[in-house]
């Protein structure tokens, strides 16, 4: 019999970073395809440019600082795709390029690369872009109308023939007491609304969630607690709150962020209790910002703010199994 | 004769490069971050601080043997506050617009830690002339830093240069750079660049002087200015 002597950990996993990120990429394809169908081929190009420039940014950073190449772990690709899906379908192409370079070079690599970034790179880059180019970032297009001919509609992003539209989020912003008539829950569920490329179609995001759950990539607690906390917060913050629960959950980037952005490994806590506090806080803040802040959306702000509390939340260590608190007399004696 | 000349020139050049208050000592960060939304604001703030710095350094240096050690800080604050009041009133009379823009930050020069630091570290131990040169050098270093930051932030954040709008670019201005977050980005990167450049030049000078004369290797560490890196951010 052969004895192997080694230090812990003794049980490994076949899941590598590359495989995890590959699964996330595949899960991100659902909202990408949904967004392309809704807004035409130009929105796909936006996502592609964001993803490509994120990978390029990481490659350039590795080359400039003479570090080993870390592009192969696909995390830059995931960051780029998430950022691209967070952009409006009318964004000029320099917006995803600047955003991806900011996300990778400043938020991620300057702090030490994968696993060491203090905030979600895609969410931070989105905030950077929203605060920089508010005009480009809030120029939402209505879903294309295929009845006027498929190709003409499909390329309408390139020909700038899109119809700008207010998003359900903007409609909700001014509402009090009753849900505005322009809000149609079925349209919001299927994605026939204005909004960012990836966030409009709830069906695609739920499919992505199921995919990630099947391969056990993400912890279900984060999205579920986040959504539940948002629902409770909507109930509390809005007058006649029960009417606003579903519109709140289906509008804006709430679902997308719940599945893809909140669950980022390096910026979410490690313990169960920490994760529950983290997700509940993010949900509460999201609705708080939506209801009372000057900005229309609140998801990215909430996520980045809660990201900053993660080092603190990670210090809440649950009681080890079988640990008995020593009695005071025993401790003295 | 040469030594006396050096004693006047060195405080001046040190203030700009080696002890640059903004990029090397990280002093006076409050006006640095808050004021530099436009190049002109940075320049004015820098010049106002320079004036106060020269005058207070001169007076404190003259009075350095008169002021009792235990009450020196209140005494310095009184002297500095007097000159700040002069600046405040002159600006309110002749530059009312800028005075309005800078607002609270002009009276706040009183507690600007660059001025306090120079009083504590230099002018209460040195003769009036070197103290004035030190004030001039530190002030110019501060002014240059604020102006550079203002130019960069105004260029990126508003698409203009000293208030002159650059056509086309102003449509694509990144507003975040005239917000506080952008101030921290620009400040951080400028600190990195400035220190890298100064260290690289210092290394070259050291290598040159080491090649010329071997026996004065320790001249660098014996300089009195070495202990000035204290104080911390405001």
Brief write-up:
The complex is a heterodimer of chains A (333) and B (234). Chain A has helices at 17-39, 41-64, 75-85, 94-108, 121-132, 134-137, 150-154, 168-173, 185-190, 202-214, 221-237, 245-250, 254-261, 272-292, 299-308, 310-313, 328-332.
Question: How would you describe this protein?
Answer:
The complex is a heterodimer of chains A (333) and B (234). By secondary structure, chain A is an all-alpha fold. Chain A has one domain (17-313). Chain A is 57% helix and 0% strand. Chain A contains 17 helices and no strands. With 234 residues, chain B is mainly alpha-helical. Chain B is built from eight helices and two strands. In chain B, a hairpin with a 2-residue loop joins strand 1 and strand 2. In chain B, helix 4 packs across helix 5 (96-102) and helix 7 (128-158) crosses helix 8. Chain B is flat and about 55 Å long. Chain B starts with a helix and ends in a 22-residue tail after the last helix. The chains are: A mainly alpha (333), B mainly alpha (234). Chain A binds chain B through residues 106, 128, 131-134, and chain B through 172, 174-177, 179, 181, 185.
Helix-strand layout with pairing:
The complex is a heterodimer of chains A (333) and B (234).
Chain A: H1 17-39, H2 41-64, H3 75-85, H4 94-108, H5 121-132, H6 134-137, H7 150-154, H8 168-173, H9 185-190, H10 202-214, H11 221-237, H12 245-250, H13 254-261, H14 272-292, H15 299-308, H16 310-313, H17 328-332
Helix pairs in contact in A: 1-2, 1-3, 1-10, 2-3, 2-4, 3-4, 3-5, 4-5, 5-15, 10-13, 11-13, 11-14, 14-15
Chain B: H1 2-16, H2 29-35, H3 39-62, H4 72-94, H5 96-102, H6 113-123, H7 128-158, E1 160-161, E2 164-165, H8 180-212
Antiparallel strand pairs in B: 1-2
Helix pairs in contact in B: 1-7, 3-4, 3-6, 3-7, 4-5, 4-6, 6-7, 7-8
